[in-house]
Amino acid sequence: MVNDKLQNRKFVIGGLIVLVVIIFTIRLLSLQVFTSSYKVLADDNAFYKRILFPSRGLIYDRYGKLLVYNRPAYDIMVTMKEITNLDTMDFCNTVGITKDWFDQRMNDIKDRHINQGYSPYTPQVFITQVLPDDYARLMEKLFHFPGFSVQRRSVRDYAYDAAAHTLGAIGEVSRETIENDPYYKPGDYVGITGVEKSYESVLRGEKGVQILLRDSRGRIKGSYDDGKYDKQPVTGKDITLGLDIELQMLGEKLMQGKRGSIVAIEPSTGQILAMVSAPSYDPELMVGRQRSQLFQQLNTDPEKPLLDRSIMGRYPPGSTFKAANALIFQQEGITTKDTKVACHGGYFVGHFKVGCHIHPSPLDLEGAIAYSCNTYFCTEFRAMLDSKKFKNIEQSFNIWRKDLLTFGFGAKLGIDLPNENNGSIPTTKTYDRKHGKGRWKSLNLVSDAIGQGEVIATPLQIANLCALVANRGYWITPHIVRSIEGGTLDPRYDVKHVPPIDKWYYTNVVEGMRQSVIYGTSRIASFGDSIVVCGKTGTSQNPPHKDHSIFMGFAPMNHPKIAIMCIVENSGFGATYAAPIASLMMEFYLTRKISPARQGLETTMENTFLIPNYGSKNSIVAPAR
Amino acid sequence: MVRKIQLSHLLDKWVILIFLLMIIFGWFNVYGASYGFHQTNFWSFEYRSGKQLIWIACAFVIGGVILLLDGKYYEQLAYIFYAAVLVLLAVTIVIAPNIKGSHSWLVFGPVSFQPAELAKLATALALGKYISHPGFSLSKRQDVWWVFGIILTPFVLIILQAETGSALVFMAFFLMLYREGLPGILLLIVTVLIVLFLIVLPLSEVPIYGNVGSLGFLIALSIIFLIEIGAVVAYERDWKTARYFLLAGVLLFGIGLLLQMSYDVLFNQIALILVILSSLYLISLYIYKRKRAYIWIALFALGATAVSFSGDYFFDHVLEQHQRTRIEVVLGMKNDPQGVGYNVNQSKIAIGSGGFWGKGFLQGTQTKLKYVPEQDTDFIFCTVGEEHGFLGSVTVLILYALLLFRLILIAESHRDTFLRVYAYSIVSIILFHVLINVGMVLGLTPVIGIPLPFFSYGGSSLWSFTVMLFILLRLDVSQKMRFR
Predict the structure, then answer these.
(1) ipTM score here?
(2) What does the domain layout of chain A look like in residue ranges?
(3) Are residues B484 and B356 part of one domain?
(4) Could you tell me what percent of chain A has a pLDDT over 70?
(5) Which of A339, A328, A421 is nearest to A375 (CA)?
(6) Pairwise CA distance, residues B442 & A621, whole Å
(7) Of B136, B165, B182, at which residue does a domain stop?
(8) Which of A3, A6, A8, A13 to mutate to test the interface with B (most CBs of B within 10 A)?
(9) How far apart are the CA of A27 and the nearest CA of chain B, in angstroms?
(10) Nearest to B179 among A1, A13, A18 (CB)
(11) What pLDDT digit, counting tens, does each position of B259-309 carry?
(12) Helix-, strand-, coil-residue percentages of chain A, each rounded to 5
């Protein structure tokens, strides 16, 4: 045949077919078998995960009064593709924004760099948490603005204008948190301060998810596999605080116009009954759209209303610290109940002088506590440091220090609130640095005897000391939460911490604190005859400013129900403000009222404004609740 | 009765089997691709899967009728049929409504029909008849012009309908012509030029080092130079010249590399100088030795160089923007997922997400949620890739290969030129469709809207391929009957 030679060309054509199949097979291999990213891309395309937000757990006080609950807030949403004939001016006026803000916001929404999940077919957040008035106004006219809709969200509401520091607030989750915890997504609310933060995992519940199918234009085409993979949200757990909200409110009222703190603890359980830090603010201010502006205002307030002084304030404990020293001196065999020291208006060594006030002399231990005699404690402290029982001053100092740490000083107690301060108890290194190694003597340390010098404590630590004395031998880590609905409290809040001090030594200190109320410096703390009060004043020197007024006390003397500590900054003697305020608190807590005889004192305390030209709570003129 | 028994006996079982497999698998994929979440009754004729069932049933009827007709009619009526189709094509340009920019569909009430589909068949038959004339030879100039004319007339008419995709299919006939004796070198040259074009375009702006030179031109010119050397050896056994050329290349590039330490050397210019000098040397050899091959090699080298440069010029100054972007996307010059490349990108995601085993029938989210455009017609292979994975995709490709091999076998098993030309025409057309369609879906070839034979939704395409295939089967049966 003519074509014989050309017949071989069938192999070329056949080869061409094989070549095409091979090239396509290699391409298919690389797309389907060796690249896994297409699967992810396809899922990202198709699955729209709608998050179902759980409602956040509620917060109650110790008597079951509702403190914190949820209320709906409304976000205005915009669906770009649905906007038609928008009267921008009318819209801006209705919602209460400017035209510039409107344009800026619309551009931000459309910018995929800022708003990664942008689709013109799905609703995008336009404004978060509109005010109820704006919402009401918008709802009336919403039909005029096609493309705009409203999405319900849940924000916190507060039944009482109190305990702002302790309760804390929720806010949009930070970028850092999102990176550390995949649970959170941008725009989520998370506890950022107080109980809201420390119990975030309990209160938040678990988000649910609804997996929806989304088509190429961003339209939802129904649920995936009949919702087989959907998850219902789990509501957050309610929690009950040990806090007594009425006591808390009284404390905040008494502290208004002042700087300082009150911490009240139920000694037998370690539960916090009240925790006041003044100046303060209305927790409501931290909710809603005005939040960032008000936060800024509070943040720049010179009196620092945002600072929770009760756990973050660092103060010299002053004479309340004598109770701790009295325990140690007795335990270490330096001082007995009957040790007597003469005092002639102060403690004098050469040119060195620690003043004391006028009181009978000589005094035994109880008397020294009752009259808060500086000379007594300086003498006994030096006696301990220089005692022959110990090898040298370093050793005796370290024993003193170690005992103090077992009382809860010098380190975080471990309260269930964020940002607790350590306080500070000096070490031998502190003095080595100050005076040179081996070159410091007991006289250099003598201020520590009366709670001055290098000793620093938080109000919480001082209140804890008071609880220790009230319990006569143990303390339980103070905590704010009493119970969690359907959950258990951290077991460390059941542990009794027992310092190495024998029980009967506490009796002497308690007796001294009782004497103090009967005839000593704490007389003003006494109320009624039926309840036996113990107390210890303190005047914490704070040069060059005025002294802090401090008081710690507990009642009743036997089977104490409340141990309290109060500090009023730069206000003078402990007996002037701290003792009356603390005693009013104890009276109210134990009797649920203030006796008519003491209502005058209550009014006086309430109306004493120590910060000049300042509001009762802070510098903000609060909007009406 | 006797005839029928003979027919079923003589029918090529393999082609029938593969055809049925493809039709069935194709229908399932059309069903999968057009399936919506609210669709409950997939037999309903409101849906494309239902309609496709009608088209398939009709295709079986048409196939049966063709088998019953005598094979000799196709050869006898080839020219008349071809002429009629040309007239139809011309009329279509005038009367067809504008559908997506092209005037290629004739609409009769609910039924629309694309004459271009018929044109492939008519051209295949006409070519078969013309080439089977006694004394036909591709070395006769007149015969070559006639053959080109038969191919290019419908091509031009379809271009005029603005249906470029279908028109390009007519280029497939050159593969058949290769089997019939068209010099292989022509196919090779065309291939080389296309490859050069594909290399130069995306890489012409890429610098060789720093920001100097053009990588695309360097590679293209180097390839031309190497082909020159290879050709000199292959056609003239002139090892001396080849050595000279290699030495010159090494020398010039070596000097370039040395100078590069202190100067910015344009290596693509060195390659250009090499190609031009070597071509001039070959021309002088032709004048001196009077050997034809030298001048052809030199002309090829210079021509290919011109194509490389003109390709760039052509691309930048002649093509329209939308044509440019389409080519840019295919050549990977632009990574633009939301723009022109969207279709190809989504189709790659669909196929890539299928994995080895696939997501399972009706489980493909990409296709179900309409991320892939034209997914039941031109992009039907996406559904195969997504729902049936690598396994399904390769199975389909192998089915095509088996079908084409079987058709080649049929073509070569008879001594009948008409049958062979027709069969190779069908092979070329199907291969071209598969190459362009699957290549497009895989992001390897430009987006040209032509259907995947036996798979894509639509009556015109299905019927046209069925008719082509069954005419071949009938011709095969006729030949077998004749020699029994």
Answers:
(1) 0.82
(2) 44-65+164-241, 73-158, 245-282+309-606
(3) yes
(4) 98
(5) A339
(6) 67
(7) B182
(8) A13
(9) 7
(10) A13
(11) 877 777 778 888 888 899 999 999 998 888 888 888 888 888 888 888 777
(12) 40, 20, 40
